[in-house]
Amino acid sequence: xxxxxxxxxxxxSLGAYEVGAFEALRELGIDYDIVTGTSIGALNGAFFATGxxxxxxxxxxxxxxxxxxxxxxxxxxxxxxxADSEKAVLKSFMSFLKNYVKRRGxxxxxxxxxxxxxxxxxxxxxxxxxxxxxxxxxLPRLSEVDLVVNDLPVDRILPYLHAxxxxxxxxxxxEIDGKKYIDGFYNNNLPIDFAxxxxxxxxxxxxxxxxxxxxxxxxxxxxxxxxxxxPFTSLGSMLDFSQEPIRRHMRLGYLDTMxxxxxxxGYRFTFNNADDFEALGDEFLVNLAxxxxxxxxxxxxxxxxxxxxxxRASDYLLRATELVxxxxxxxxEQEKIWDLREFIALGRERLIAGTLNEDNKVGQRLLQVxxxxxxxxxxxxxxxxxxDGFANEITRLALHLFxxxxxxxxxxxxxxx
Length: 417
Description:
The protein folds into two domains: 4-69 and 109-260, 3-Layer(aba) Sandwich (Cytosolic phospholipase A2 catalytic domain); 265-410, no CATH class. Strand 3 (131-138) and strand 4 form a beta hairpin. It has helices at 16-28, 40-50, 53-62, 65-68, 77-82, 86-102, 110-119, 122-126, 154-164, 192-197, 243-260, 277-292, 296-306, 313-325, 340-355, 361-375, 381-398, 401-404; strands at residues 4-8, 34-38, 131-138, 143-148, 174-176, 179-183, 202-206, 226-229, 264-265, 270-272, 337-338. Helix 1 (16-28) packs antiparallel against helix 3 (53-62). The chain has 18 helices and eleven strands. It is α/β, with parallel strands linked by helices and 417 residues long. Helix content is 49%, strand content 12%.
């Protein structure tokens, strides 16, 4: 039997995404033999190793900004926008800053230590049925330290979990047995390589896209035995510990994992994997060919070559649909599981309603793009693909979803600018 591992990335409050992935793996019946984690991925990894999903979720559902650090300040765009006034934001930040300076350059995370101590049983972690490794960074050399947690003394397990997540300079440096440690992020934020060294033959790598950068050793992501799961877009601030984004991150982690293992489909949005999905994808290509006067066989050949066989027809339809309609859907609607035809119908309805209002800049812009697209000459797929590349070509072809789903007759002319 294949020895499977789960590798968990660091990323502060974004780690709630991994809790959603945890839920999905349980629901799918996918087990694993090894867990590796860095920073918040190490803290979550303790629960992955013991299999204690409910305790892990409860920790995240109970967390608050004040529960992470004394006089905690919620560092997020949402917090700034929702504050009653600039004075309230400034007062909160100044309290945090005063405490930060008082402690000589680190926040007081005593509340978080209590949270972790109450939630994680070091004896259970040491005796976990799965091998568990964490990554931290040793000062002053900034060298990577990889530890098998099951081999640590019980009284060192929690300190090393904090060492892995000591996000200096915000969080304090962790000192253990005379040695100083900081966050493992600085060397290896997604420890896939460590999982292989611990004996894994297949790795499920759950990334948080922290700062929208690739993890170290990103070449490993292209291996056929690495299953990569990550949010489609940035999740936001790693220091936003309010419950609304945490709940959203958990939901997206669940949906993205279910999509990665074929239960659902989609990219930014999530769609039921309906029986007629492939037929709908073929219908899209047939209509696309008719709209552009391209012989069906040549159309299929051109598109397949252009996307370098990266997508099936139905996947191509999906992303094209999302590109066209995503400005018309809210952030919260990304958390829903959609029927594709329902999504298209609602998107079309909103598009038509929006374009009738000349003050609706999004609707008017989409309408202008649509009229430009249908007025363009027939598509020379092969040449255009070579000229613009895959990303531009799929955007161009996405515009033909308008005539495909019979919007043309209902649309007015765009407002003059």
